[in-house]
Design a protein that fits this description.
Layout: E1 2-5, H1 8-19, H2 23-39, H3 41-52, H4 56-59, H5 65-74, H6 77-97, E2 102-107, E3 110-118, E4 121-125, H7 134-147, E5 151-155, H8 161-169, E6 175-176, H9 180-189, E7 199-201, H10 206-215, E8 220-221, E9 229-233, H11 239-250, E10 257-262, H12 265-280, H13 288-294, E11 297-300, H14 304-314, E12 318-321, H15 326-329, E13 337-340, H16 346-351, E14 377-385, H17 387-403, H18 407-414
Parallel strand pairs: 1-11, 4-5, 4-7, 5-6, 7-8, 9-10, 9-12, 10-11, 12-13
Antiparallel strand pairs: 2-3, 3-14
Helix pairs in contact: 2-3, 2-9, 2-10, 3-9, 5-8, 6-7, 6-8, 7-8, 9-10, 11-12, 11-13, 17-18
Length: 417
């Protein structure tokens, strides 16, 4: 990893690199989306064969019930115990996050309330490239079930036994062997085989993210969750542990970004040395080798305040504060998720702490947080107005409508007086 001074020019380069338009993805994704939207299953099968090497005509679009049952038998008891543990924690957190029905009388005769309704049909996109992320199924399907969603469609280009076993534990039966931009198009618009969903959930690569943003004109999406980002802020601490966290996120993909921000030149050197040592023990094919070389960096900040100001402008997906407490947390205004304390290893949040690992990337944490049960429901406002409430409001509403020159608005009140 490079060690650089956190100066204005360095920060500008880092932010500009992330905000640069991905013209390749922007050019390719619309072609795929338009073809699947226009040709349905034919377009879906064609792109799946071309991009993933999977012949859906031969293998079948859907995973069978028998395959799911066999997968549950094939995985070990340790895996089933661990995955159930993770599901329990995610479910407990989701139940806390879920918006509630409420009502209140704002003045005599005027009651305002909220009713919460789940999305009827949702799609769970599970990355299936170099690694099939069954954990993403937990993070998307469990909150959906807590919210009360009736139909959950799972898509993954390479559904392995672990993913299918997790689907079986959750009672899910609709798992399709599709991925990429073509899967998002299929869920957004529907095909002869894939049902149209109300909302798409789950992270993906740059082509998947481009497709999700494109179809969001017609189908709701959770958030643009693209290449992984991780920042650690520390001026002291265990360099071995810090390096391990940086490597953990760096191995997600070649375009992942892992960054240490510190005021200590000594810690910077120690972490860089540890990263090099731990990297030697990883397989040659591990994506961390590429991502750390191209996107990994250690930044030497002039002060702690400068470090936090940079982090808030960057708005990372993952942020670790290994030596921090509640007071330090107050300085954070933009991050997808924050890990506090030396024992808060980032992979704990990726799998089993209960917090959701579908998080905003690319600076989106400046405007929203990570996925929660609230993303799976609609909050509908309800207005109950009686005669007394009407009389209290009518006069002022007519005045306001007249001021906006909206005669029909004024009349709709006037005819009732």
């Amino acid at each position: 990893m490079r060690i650089l001074r956190l100066a204005g020019a360095v920060e500008k380069r880092l932010l500009a690199a992330r905000e640069r338009r991905d013209t390749q993805a922007e050019n390719v994704a619309p072609k795929i989306v338009a073809d699947v939207r226009g040709r349905g299953d034919d377009g879906l099968c064609s792109w799946t064969k071309k991009l993933d090497g999977i012949d859906l005509v031969r293998s079948g679009m859907w995973v069978s019930k028998l395959e799911i049952e066999e997968a549950q038998k094939s995985v070990g008891s340790d895996f089933l115990r661990a995955v159930k543990h993770a599901m329990t924690n995610v479910r407990n957190v989701a139940e806390k996050q879920l918006p509630r029905n409420w009502s209140m009388e704002v003045e005599p005769g005027v009651s305002i309330g909220q009713v919460v309704r789940p999305f009827e049909t949702i799609g769970c996109y599970i990355p299936g490239g170099k690694a099939t992320l069954f954990s993403t199924l937990i993070m998307t399907a469990v909150p959906a079930q807590v919210a009360g969603t009736k139909k959950i469609v799972v898509v993954c280009s390479r559904p392995n036994n672990e993913l299918l076993a997790a689907a079986g534990v959750l009672g899910l039966r609709e798992v399709a062997r599709i991925g990429g931009a073509q899967a998002n198009a299929a869920m957004a618009y529907g095909t002869e085989t894939i049902p149209r969903v109300d909302k798409i959930f789950g992270p993906g690569n740059r082509f998947v993210t481009a497709a999700k943003q494109l179809v969001s004109c017609n189908c709701a999406i959770d958030l643009p969750a693209g290449p992984t980002e991780a920042i650690v802020i520390a001026s002291r601490g265990n360099p071995r542990w810090i390096a391990a966290d940086l490597l953990a996120q760096a191995e997600h993909a070649a375009d992942a970004a892992s960054i240490l921000v510190t005021t200590s030149a000594r810690l910077a050197r120690e972490v860089r040395r540890e990263v090099d040592e731990q990297l030697k023990r990883l397989p040659e094919t591990n994506s961390a080798r590429v991502s750390l070389k191209t996107h990994g960096v250690i930044l030497l900040a002039a002060s702690e305040n400068a470090a936090f100001e940079f982090v808030n402008r960057f708005a990372p997906e993952h942020l670790s504060l290994p030596q921090a407490g509640a007071a330090t947390l107050e300085k954070i205004s933009a991050a997808g998720t924050v890990f506090v304390g030396p024992w808060a290893a980032q992979p704990l949040g990726d799998y089993a702490s209960g917090s959701n690992h579908v998080l905003p990337t690319g600076g989106w944490a400046r405007s929203r947080g990570g996925l929660s049960a609230a993303d799976f429901v609609k909050c509908i406002s309800v207005q109950t107005i009686g005669r007394k409430g009407f009389r209290r409001l009518a006069g002022d509403v007519r005045v306001l409508a007249r001021a906006e020159n909206l005669q029909a608005h004024e009349n709709a009140v006037g005819v009732r007086e």
